[in-house]
């Protein structure tokens, strides 16, 4: 992997400056805060590309990825495009000798992840995915309290999100583009969960319901599932379930519910709750507020890895784990049977 004398020597760019949530601006800003130097932005919309030049005076905007890779001098590029384009664009960058950070999800299939990892290793380049939520206050607090024995040994994790409502008419509602209903937020919840369950995956099963919203959504036959459900079983006996839904009229509270031998830990982004039982049978409930996110640590770690040789926290192999679960769950739902993992 390339090494740099100092962070400001790392020239960075983004592919996909515009679109939802102003993520191009956010990525370049966070790269700058970590000391790196923005030099380029690429967007297929010329107007959005020009906005990047206004937002970051001195950078060069492009409407062609190939031209940006050839002309800009960028050595690290963040890819902020629809999910089904991540692997193709990452391979284009890696094969041009440029390190890559992909937005979540890393890719749509395990095979795509494998090709990306192989290209990065062959070129000795950095490859990661933007799991800035690895440092969300809610999961950092949960890891600290649960490893400290707050609920005993983990038996199961129930990860869930959603409610009742018609999907929006945008690419995130297209299964072919997004990967399906489980991918967008599911990859975050799985990454949280995998920080808590320290064991090998031994089996994944997936279930889905489709067709309820399809007639009302622009994508019609390609609309995401109405609800997706996955269960992963681990070698230590724990299991993990993931539910993402658009047809639940009574959604559960929180995002993760972690049940252990001595209690249950429930958290949302802002709050946590620990439920335990006293020796007299009384129910004890502790509630608290989670600390602020430290998502800035993602790009700081990337910079430190390239400059100091620090251990990369979000390795491509780590990023592949939640994708492998999602990929297997999708295959399982189609085949009607549980599947064994290729990667543990």
List the helices and strands and how they pair.
Layout: E1 11-15, H1 23-33, E2 37-42, H2 46-55, E3 60-62, H3 65-71, E4 76-79, H4 86-95, E5 99-102, H5 110-123, E6 127-129, H6 137-147, E7 154-162, H7 175-178, H8 186-196, E8 201-209, E9 227-234, E10 239-245, E11 256-260, E12 263-267, E13 271-277, E14 283-289, H9 297-308, H10 316-335
Parallel strand pairs: 1-2, 1-4, 2-3, 4-5, 5-6, 7-10
Antiparallel strand pairs: 7-11, 8-9, 9-10, 11-12, 12-13, 13-14
List keywords for this structure.
344 residues, alpha/beta, Rossmann fold, Dihydrodipicolinate Reductase, domain 2, 2 domains, 8-stranded mixed β-sheet, 6-stranded parallel β-sheet, 14 strands, globular
Biggest sheet record: 8 strands, mixed
**CATH homology-level superfamily of the largest domain:** Dihydrodipicolinate Reductase, domain 2
Q: Please state the second-level CATH architecture of the largest domain.
A: 2-Layer Sandwich
- Radius of gyration (CA) equals 21 Å
What is the string of SSEs from the N terminus onward?
EHEHEHEHEHEHEHHEEEEEEEHH
- Widest β-sheet, arrangement of strands: 8-9-10-7-11-12-13-14
Query: The CATH topology of the largest domain, please?
Result: Dihydrodipicolinate Reductase, domain 2
User: Fraction of residues in helices?
Assistant: 25-40%
Can you tell me the CATH class of the largest domain? Alpha Beta
In whole angstroms, how far apart are the ends? 25 Å
Shape assignment: globular
Characterize the quaternary organization of these chains. single chain
Number of domains: 2
Beta-strand percentage range: 15-25%
Question: Which runs of at least 5 residues are low in confidence (pLDDT < 50)?
Answer: none
Report the count of strand segments. Answer: 14
Average of pLDDT: 96
Number of helices: 10
Give the structural class: alpha/beta
